[in-house]
């Protein structure tokens, strides 16, 4: 992988955490709306919607650049629709991006795997 791929993975990773948090907050707001007079669902719905759209855009870019197999791409998409899935995606993407940077630097320095 090259640095552009690592950047795409990092972008996806950076939005996965806030997207997961916004999803959880939206669920809390939904419960509060039904049990109290507090109604923050329209605001949290908008915030979560924007973050989800960003996640999908960055997911498509990462899929294109990283050349993931369909199974891996589907896993990252499914993680985006689970309430805590973004946290798991963040952890996996961090490892994948670090490996991409290490591989890119090794290629730049002329180190070849034996």
From TrEMBL:
Keyword Transmembrane among UniProt keywords: yes
Protein known as: DUF3817 domain-containing protein
NCBIfam families: integ_memb_HG
Record keyword Transmembrane helix present: yes
Record-linked InterPro entries: DUF3817_TM (IPR023845)
Cell compartment(s), UniProt: Cell membrane
Keyword list, A-Z: Cell membrane, Membrane, Transmembrane, Transmembrane helix
Bilayer disposition of the protein: Multi-pass membrane protein
Record-annotated membrane-spanning stretches: 39-60, 72-89
Domain DUF3817 span(s) in chain numbering: 9-95
Organism the protein comes from: Streptomyces griseicoloratus
GO cellular component: plasma membrane
């Amino acid at each position: 992988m090259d640095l552009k791929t690592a950047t795409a993975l990092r972008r996806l990773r950076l939005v996965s955490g806030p997207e997961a948090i916004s999803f959880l907050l939206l669920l809390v707001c939904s419960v509060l709306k039904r049990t109290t007079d507090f109604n923050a669902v329209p605001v949290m719905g908008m915030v979560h919607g924007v973050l989800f759209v960003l996640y999908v855009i960055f997911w498509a870019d990462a899929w294109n650049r990283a050349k993931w197999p369909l199974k891996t791409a589907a896993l990252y998409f499914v993680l985006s629709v689970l309430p805590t899935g973004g946290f798991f995606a963040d952890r996996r993407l961090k490892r994948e991006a670090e490996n991409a940077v290490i591989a890119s630097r090794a290629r730049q320095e002329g180190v070849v795997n034996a």
